[in-house]
Amino acid sequence: MDFVYVGGETTQTIRKLNTTDLVQVTESAGYGGDIYALTVDASFVYMGGLTTQTVKKLRKSDLAVVATSPNYGGGIRSLGNDAGFVYVGGAALVVKKLQKSNLAVVVTSAGLGGSILGLTAEDASFVYTSGSDNFARKLQKSDLAVVALSADYGGQIQSITEDSGFIYIGGTTTNRVKKLQKSDLAQVAQSANLGANVLALTEDASFVYAAR
């Protein structure tokens, strides 16, 4: 990857930065609200957030908007994608599956009991979510039916990431990273208390990285 894409509050735009020196290359038009979620594929950036409550598809080359989804129904807090679809979650308490080509809604999950604060869709068959109701969930990609539920994390789960065999979650109150088995979301390990809310997670082949 040659570029980093960043968005947030105040300017409410996406900025494209060179990975070598983090110099800005281009900037999108304003989203119309705070940007809370980004996901990328080979050619496009997808963004979502508050106020506008839509997913926007931007061309990577110039960050021009090429498609906009229908209103999600609440603030968008999480996005993921696979080869054909974008998955969106947030304050509407549901996950929606959108066609990448035009961002039309193709499936909507049942209500999940809390705001969807984290979402990952790298797995071939399942989407994993984390939420304000303290639970992680495993959803079938085909129909977004829930097929597994974690134990109570002990606080809101703000962040989630995955590798080939496990899900990693972090959040408030408990202030720990927990490692869950993908098959049934059973806990297999947890970190020490990190002393602050775990707000973001990512991983590589050997390590998990937590922001607090």
Describe this structure in words.
With 212 residues, the chain is an all-beta fold. It has two domains: 1-108, Lipocalin, CATH 2.40.128.630; 115-212, Lipocalin (Beta Barrel). The strands form six sheets. Strands 4-5-6-7 form a four-stranded antiparallel beta sheet, with no helix packed on it. Strands 8-9-10-11 form a four-stranded antiparallel beta sheet, with no helix packed on it. The two termini are 26 Å apart. It is 0% helix and 49% strand. The protein has strands spanning 3-7, 14-18, 24-27, 35-40, 44-49, 56-59, 65-68, 76-81, 85-90, 95-99, 105-108, 116-120, 126-131, 136-140, 146-149, 157-162, 166-171, 177-181, 187-190, 200-203, 208-211. It is built from no helices and 21 strands. Strand 14 (136-140) and strand 15 form a beta hairpin.
Summarize the model shown.
This protein is mainly β and 212 residues long. It is 0% helix and 49% strand. The protein has two domains: 1-108, Lipocalin, CATH 2.40.128; 115-212, Lipocalin (Beta Barrel), CATH 2.40.128.
Shape: globular
Overall average pLDDT: 97
Order of helices and strands: EEEEEEEEEEEEEEEEEEEEE
End-to-end separation in angstroms reads: 26 Å
What is the fold-level CATH name, i.e. the topology of the largest domain? Lipocalin
Features:
212 residues, mainly beta, Lipocalin, 21 strands
